[in-house]
Specification:
The chain is mostly helical. The protein contains nine helices and two strands, in the order αααββαααααα. It has two domains: about 60 residues, Winged helix-like DNA-binding domain superfamily/Winged helix DNA-binding domain (Arc Repressor Mutant, subunit A, Orthogonal Bundle), CATH 1.10.10; about 140 residues, Four Helix Bundle (Hemerythrin (Met), subunit A), CATH 1.20.120.530.
């Protein structure tokens, strides 16, 4: 196994030999982050040469990174054609949002029961901080804070396997969940209000209400994406 040299390419942020990971794995993580953040859009072709140039690597780790992303569902590999950023059809997206809603609802219920005092304080503080982002109309900041909010709830379930499943599904849906906030400021405001209901229930230790509020919230996120998707298709 390669040992880390502790060096990192300043331009690409990819460690020369990251501890416990190959260069391809480091690149896969960077590409996944860029897909989730919207730098690469669903359905966009991924050109190996351009990626290699942009990230300062050879084509070999690019090909391996793409294979890893395909295994996680973020990329679709096509024979004799450029791979694509995954773009599930409407039915698949609806099914994914249903699963996401159930996973996060279970996490919220578990968090309401088992969250530590420190975790409760951190969640409440994070939610209050998100209010300032809403007031400022900072959509980019809110998108990042929203991702962190859902991660905090999942981790506070103290169920490592549940948190792992939720994280994997969140990653698959991230480009679509983030896009909903680009549709309108109203969705940003409603999202924060929905978070408020979740936080209140969790802080009260009300597992049933926390679960229902989270399930409703994810369901509304899914419907917001469907509305946005129809607008984009009609444009």
């Amino acid at each position: 196994m390669e040992k880390s040299t502790g060096t990192t390419d300043a331009a690409t942020g990819i460690a020369d030999r990251p501890a416990g990971r190959t260069r391809a794995e480091a690149l896969a993580n960077r590409l996944a982050e860029d897909i989730v953040s919207g730098r690469f859009q669903p359905g966009e072709a991924l050109d190996e040469v351009r990626i290699a140039t942009a990230y300062g690597v050879s084509r070999t780790p690019v090909r391996e990174a793409i294979r890893q992303l395909a295994a996680s569902g973020l990329v679709v590999i096509r024979p004799h054609r450029a791979p694509l950023v995954a773009k599930p059809d409407d039915r698949m997206l609806r099914e994914m949002f249903v699963v996401m809603a159930e996973l996060e609802a279970l996490a919220a219920a578990s968090a309401a029961i088992g969250m530590t005092a420190i975790e409760r304080q951190a969640l409440e503080a994070h939610h209050l901080g998100m209010r300032r982002l809403v007031q400022a109309g900072d959509m980019a900041g809110y998108r990042d804070a929203n991702t962190a909010f859902h991660r905090m709830v999942a981790e506070a379930s103290h169920n490592a396997y549940l948190a792992e499943l939720a994280a994997a599904t969140q990653r698959r849906l991230a480009p679509f969940r983030r896009a909903q906030f680009d549709a309108s400021v109203d969705r940003l405001i409603r999202s924060h209000d929905e978070h408020g209901a979740i936080v209140t229930a969790i802080l009260r230790g009300d597992a049933e209400t926390a679960s229902r509020a989270m399930r409703d919230h994810i369901g509304l996120s899914g419907r917001a994406w469907e509305t946005l998707g129809r607008r984009l298709a009609a444009a």
